[in-house]
Fold these 2 entries.
Entry 1:
Amino acid sequence: MKVVNIGTGYVGLNTAAALAWIGHDVACVDIDESKINSLKNGVVPIREEGLDDLIKNTKIKFTTDLAEVINDAEVIFIAVGTPSLPNGHANLDYVHNAANSIGNLINPTHDVTIIVKSTVPIGVNSSIEDSIRNQVKLNNLDDSLLHFASNPEFLREGCALSDTLYPDRIVIGTNDNTAFEMMSKLYAPLVDQTFTIPDSVQPPKDRPKTYILHTNQASAEMIKYSSNVFLALKISYINEISSLCERLGADVDDVAKGMGLDHRIAPYFLNSGLGWGGSCFPKDTLALLQIAKDMQCDTPIIQAAWYVNEAQIDKVINKLKYEFYELHDLNVTLFGLTFKPNTDDVRNSPAVSLARQLIELGVHVTFTDPVGLPNARKVYADEPFEFEDDPIKASLDSDCIILTTEWKQFKSLDYKAVASNMRHKFMIDARHCLDPKYINDVGIKYIKL
Ligand code: UDX
């Protein structure tokens, strides 16, 4: 099918690459000329397992000119960002701009389904449909060949292509049968797994068959928010249990393992530590809280998930105060800047929130990260952070190492060399990923968050 995808961020680019790989004819549109130019030259602006490979081996057209591609399209995705506004609401400017461009430029001569993939508050799909239809009618064109659907994405950064090519579920929110049929056709190669498996993106073992769930638009929008917020609160729950475990002599990692063996609970998203960050969980939790407030609906559980997540940073600072009492002029090295491993995304990382609070207390903060530093040097150029690529050098004169992202490079590091560089040999493992015995044996006092 002929697909146009608007937006070349994590969601848009991975979706476009996966759809092109399974055989569709895909054009990607973005207003950012430099991004489009680099993609045309084969330079992929984000780091994602297999993405370079799929883009190189498919024929995606990259353009800033929607007019050039829109009227061939059978399917148009809106996959632009919806970042948080200062009041917590999702900023819908990019979504509305994309919808306005579609409304102004489209001249429907065949069935076209317009799909919102961006995460948008409940009701926005329906208002986008109204605004595009109104614009088309204002242009004296017939809107009867236009169809609309909400199709939220569930991809995780770091395994975005695997999540897209081998999804657990595809949610299609529409009351329009043609839209549902067109989307079923679009996704059929994924559901039936009839495409060639790319070497760079192998399917997970024992994966169940993809489930297509057909709902109305509002339910599809709600599934996205409630899934993300559920995962966030699952993490906050284990972090709260962790505080109790610490006081009661229980080991939270054993407790999480014991809980996760119950198939109703499952072991995922029970890793206790510094808490959740990234471009989805904080934004979607805040947005759902705002949506609930607008509806005058109490959501104490969601509020608590947010509160517990913020408190994880205080827990680290309290542990430092317990060890040092006075934090002023302390050298602290943070092992990890990205919000999780296997991504170069440095936005909304709990490690950065921690660093900012440490700096307010007079601490000197050095970051080391195997992948995130080139981005961080740009994004955090105005902040008083030091950056050092080599973790052993980053430990020089350090009073404390805090492991903030569980990169495999940190798990296999020579901590003897790290220890010999440190001024005060103390470590807080805020991701519970190191062997305490090994760290203690090299002479570093080890505690976990
Ligand atoms: C998330 C959702 O998983 C995905 O479905 C959605 O579409 C986008 O948001 P992502 O933001 O890429 O994906 O990261 P994810 O792997 O879910 O982790 C989010 C945060 O939770 C990270 O900061 C991670 O470190 C933290 N986390 C995750 C924990 O603290 N403990 C866990 O057990 C799991």
Entry 2:
Amino acid sequence: MPEVYTTWAWSKKFPAGEELRRYFQHVDEVLDISKDVEFGVRVTGAQFDAQNGRWDIKTNDGRLTHSRFFILGVGISAKPYIPKLDGLDCFEGLKYHPSQWPKNGIEVEGKQVAIIGTGATGVQLIQEWGKSAKQLVVCQRTPNIAMRMGQEDLSREGQDKRKAEYPGIFKERETTFSGMIYHTMKRNAADDTHEERQAVFERLWGEYSFAIWLANYQDILADPQANRWLYDFWVKKTRERINDPRKKDILAPLEPPHPFGTKRPSLEQNYYETFNQPNVELVDLKQHNIEIKPNGILVDDGTFYQIDAMAIATGYDAVTGSMLNMDLRNVEGRPLSEDWKNGARSHLGMTRHGYPNMFFLHGAHGPTALSNGPSGIELQGRWVIDAIKKMLDDGINSINPTEEAEQEWKANIYGISDKTLFPLTNSWYMGANIPGKKKEPLNYGGGLAKYEEDCWSVLKDWRGFVVL
Ligand code: NA7
């Protein structure tokens, strides 16, 4: 919204948490949102009361709230996943999952610390803790095929000059696959010679950030050979940055751990160089078991690391976990956890059969993790507003998607996913990071432009909904 962005300037291209918090405060000051928000309250149960045509929503402060519409914006990384790590409960030092990070951070200067997990969170923490810890022990299971961030300082003048272009940029986002201004090349990798491909990869590498992932050949995430060419490029670039041959093989192995870009790639600044520091140790959990002791970590080759503080950066029950964690029930009282036992189901990634007038944003079966969050959420938010307006205009009390429409939507998601390399990887995109969770594509991979078309075409005649 112009009133928000014309009165704000970022200091960095990728701002840190503190600046993001200030930005949210700014948004609140401009739009006056918090007067309508109850902070610190958790939903502990919700069910649609068909007789009265309203939702009954229970919260942990003992209240019961009624509403005609129920909109969930509960995020994709809200339910932490802490695996059963041998001895973890007995550890006597500080230990945190990043979801419970203390507000003032953790001071690691002069301390011996460990990080388990090398996803986006692990990568950021390793770069930070590596700077000041006396010793940092990183326990890695799968290497992160991380890409260069390209952090930049931004000036207010530079941003102000471009603000007139923002409406056009916001529009253009929705014509792309990811909601970011990256346009996939209209060529396959095999259309070019080896030299031409290297030149393309070099150019995209030089653009930093997600360019090499999202502005590459159109078959890079679908064709194994195209993907392998890209991995080989990445591995060469990355291995040059790591001094120790053992660490080189663990962090950037010559054989890909999974196809490039099919597990959420992280953006890094000096991640690989951090491992060249004498204070940073790397344990390969593919080769070694570890046991956590009250005062440290024992590796099965006999090495013992004394540890004062530990980050368990092992991720989240992503995409579906948050909605499954609030005792949502369908009109008959059956919990969503049972409904989704054999996999998530939805219509358009925003509504669910048996949950009339409930809308969810940035969750299962939407573009969600395969899109830039704000771009996808804004689009979905607009659709929810349009759907509610249409209901009010047409005198409709409730909408409820049919199971057939959900089956069709799910088949659509599988159809798109099965043409890519994503199903080959055990990632949280596929629900495969949580033991026992069904492995399936959790996100809509058709791109934002197609998604927009699919969603609004339904509003013409409520196709796929029972309307009362
Ligand atoms: P992620 O991306 O799910 O990463 C979790 C990391 O923890 C990953 O390296 C996992 O290795 C590792 N992990 C998980 N279980 C274990 C066990 N049992 N032992 C050792 N290591 C383990 O979570 P993040 O918090 O980093 O990022 C979440 C998202 O937030 C991110 O993608 C961005 O979209 C923002 P694995 O790969 O499973 O072998």
